[in-house]
Design a protein that fits this description.
single chain; 289 residues; alpha/beta; Rossmann fold; 2 domains; 3-stranded parallel sheet; 10 helices; 41% helix; 16% strand; binds NADP nicotinamide-adenine-dinucleotide phosphate
Length: 289
């Protein structure tokens, strides 16, 4: 972690993600040494969305490097919903598949089926953590799969060593994929959690009281430096494409002057998501003997 004299330390998500990936690779190598099969992840991609293609390619490459086997399943955009659900069922019943990931968003005509598809994935193979059973387990504090980006955010915070117990954490965003699960994870670590969203009144006032800020609104430069309480830890989840390039939800240069720790965009939370996917897949393998 780099520490300048007055500015906050930059949380190096790239380095931390590489460490997680190395640890997964070592565990997989250990399985192979013991002549046990490596974990296997099925990646389902429906349609031709270029961004989704890049995400799936990055995931399959990361699997390859970690020694995780993967099954690359491509379905055309006009795949009937029933066929997609059948494909998920086949993978649910395949004992050589530990994890199933359906790349979202689904193309337009299938978009309405996203909840049904998430629910169809067998919970013990739900490495994305989006199945209602796993979401429920998270709220109940029971073991289950947790979504990869929230897991990555928690991992980064734990690496900084900032105390979570008793801290006031403000999460900006209440999406089911980021804001809500991250709030639940923080609550389990005994933080006092405030969840803000687009109807929140006086967002700056909430952020000013936060020891930990998790910004996941998807709004470029929403959080100004003078909102940050001196010494707060700032996790910027936002990925926003602007004319100035890729930026987060936080005005980084301003916020760094007050934060104790801060994630950059890119190179902060982003690399953690795939690292946690590999970790979840390894965990799924240990559940399927
Ligand atoms: P989302 O589903 O669009 O949710 C955004 C949330 O932010 C909503 O709850 C929304 O409130 C809230 N919000 C929007 N504008 C706001 C404002 N001005 N003030 C306060 N709250 C506001 O987005 P998401 O999927 O959670 O993703 C959030 C950001 O994280 C995006 O930039 C996304 O690209 C990024 N992301 C990064 C990773 C990664 O690094 N690997 C993974 C996932 C997402 P309402 O609920 O009231 O609409």
């Amino acid at each position: 972690m780099e520490m300048a004299s007055s500015a906050g330390a930059i949380i190096d998500g790239k380095r931390i993600a590489a460490e997680v990936r190395r640890s997964v690779r070592e565990h997989v190598a250990d399985l192979t040494r013991r002549e046990l099969r490596p974990p296997r992840l099925a990646l389902i991609l429906v349609g031709d969305d270029p961004a989704s293609h890049i995400y799936v390619r990055n995931k399959s490459r990361a699997c390859e490097r970690a020694g995780i086997a993967y099954l690359d399943i491509r379905l055309p955009e006009d795949t009937p919903g029933e066929r997609l659900l059948e494909q998920v069922d086949e993978l649910n019943h395949d004992d050589t598949v530990d994890g199933i990931l359906v790349q979202l968003p689904l193309p337009g005509p299938l978009r309405h089926l996203e909840p049904a598809v998430m629910e169809r994935v067998e919970p013990s193979k739900d490495v994305d953590g989006f199945h209602p059973e796993n979401m429920g387990r998270l709220l109940l504090g029971q073991p289950g799969f947790v979504a990869c980006t929230p897991l990555g955010i928690l991992f980064l915070l734990e690496q900084t060593g900032v105390p979570l117990e008793g801290a006031h954490a403000v999460v900006i965003g209440r999406s089911v994929t980021v804001g809500r699960p991250v709030a639940a994870l923080l609550l389990h670590r005994h933080a006092t959690v405030t969840i803000c969203h687009s109807r929140t009144l006086d967002l700056p006032g909430h952020v000013r009281r936060a020891d930990i800020v998790v910004a996941a609104a998807g709004k470029p430069n929403l959080v100004r430096g003078d909102w940050i309480k001196p010494g707060a830890a700032v996790i910027d989840v936002g990925i926003n494409r602007t004319e100035q390039g890729l930026v987060g939800d936080v005005v980084f240069d301003e916020a760094r002057q007050r934060a104790s720790h801060i994630t950059p965009v890119p190179g902060g939370v982003g690399p953690m998501t795939i690292a946690m996917l590999l970790q979840n897949t390894l965990r799924a393998r240990t559940m399927h003997r």
